[in-house]
Amino acid sequence: MLSILIPVFNFDIRPLVAALHGQCERSGAAFEILCFDDGSTDGFKTKNREIWKHTNLIYKELPQNLGRSAIRNALGLAARFDYLLFMDCDSLVPDASYLQKYFDHLQPGTVVYGGRSYQPIPPTDPSLYFHWYYGRQREQTTAAQRSKAPYHSFMTNNFVIPRQLFLDILFDESLRQYGHEDTLFGLELARRKVPILHIDNPLEHIGLEPVAVFLEKTKRGVENLARLHKSGKKIETRLLTTFLALKKWGLAGVLSFVFRFSSGWMVKNLSSKSPNLRVFDFYKLGLLTKEWG
Fold it and tell me: How many whole angstroms separate alpha carbon 91 and alpha carbon 289?
């Protein structure tokens, strides 16, 4: 019935796999868990090899890093069952009914997205605060909120898709670095008019990253966005729409000038105890202007 697919990179997946395996066995449903390691360090590989003790599980260490899109395609192609549950490795199962909620909503031709959540208490490490704050304010949303824009609200951290539908679409493997593989996939679902059912079944995101790492990934995501647009991909994001409007109005040069002299201040704000998400939005606009050259 269900193939659970987990791309692994530098994270201890033992708690996640143990929780999922227990729920699978209690459900009585046919299942498999596939975990493909995409070039983790030896320390994480040593820890994660312990999951071999579980039945109906395949753990595979790839000889080289494939990237975020290609690793997901490899997992989907290797899966055996009719429905595929993709999830990020830096996650925790929220409760004992997590898988059952998905079993209750499986439908042919329909994608089911469960959402993402963050712990209610901020991290003690101040360098992790911005990632947590951004996640709570922007990424943690209810099914009702996401359903208002079902395709733009889609993310790849926690979704079920019929296997044949996934094989018909696949992820764009030209995207090797972080950023917008979920945007492209969601837009392709929209183009094909594939319904997305949003439910309240979030995975808790526990892989918080220091603000410097988070901002570097943001930069990579902006680079991907610019490259995709320039290559002719019909991609739509609020960031790109805003930038193109400013460019049309002849204000891109002004934005670039302001960003050049204020980017340091913005990074300081985002690294503080009271980050401003509007500053973050402007920071991304500045990065996009810079990327456009």
Answer: 33
pLDDT single digits (tens) 68-97: 889 999 999 999 999 999 999 999 999 999
On whether both 81 and 106 belong to a single domain, the answer is: yes
* CB of 202 closer than 8 Å to CB of 139: no
> For the chain, what is the domain count?
2
Alpha helices (H) in 6-142, listed in sequence order: 14-27, 42-48, 68-78, 98-103, 129-134
**C-alpha torsion 51→55→61→65, nearest 10:** -90
pTM above 0.90, yes or no: yes
Tell me the residue type at 121: I
User: Residues 156, 133: one domain?
Assistant: yes
H/E element holding 91? strand 91-92
**Could you give the CA distance from residue 114 to residue 202 in angstroms, rounded to a whole number?**
5
Distance CA 154, CA 120 (A): 22
- 3-class state of residue 216 by DSSP: helix
Helix ranges (DSSP H) in the chain: 14-27, 42-48, 68-78, 98-103, 129-134, 143-147, 163-169, 181-191, 211-230, 238-248, 252-270, 277-292
Tokens for 53, please give them: 């003790």
**Tens digits of residue pLDDT in 229-257:** 887 777 778 888 898 898 888 888 888 89
- Locate tokens 């493909």: which residue? 36
Query: Does 271 lie in the same domain as 249?
Result: yes
Strand ranges across the sheet with 2-8:
57-61, 31-37, 2-8, 83-87, 158-162, 111-113, 196-198
Backbone dihedral angles phi then psi of residue 134, each to the nearest 5 degrees:
-60, -45
* Backbone dihedral region for residue 96 (phi beyond 0: left; psi -120 to 50: alpha; all else: beta): alpha
* Spatial CA neighbour of 199 closest among 162, 166, 159, 164: 159
Where in the sequence is the domain holding 102, given as residue range(s)? Answer: 2-205
Distance, in Å, from the CA atom of 132 to the CA atom of 183, rounded to the nearest integer, reads 21
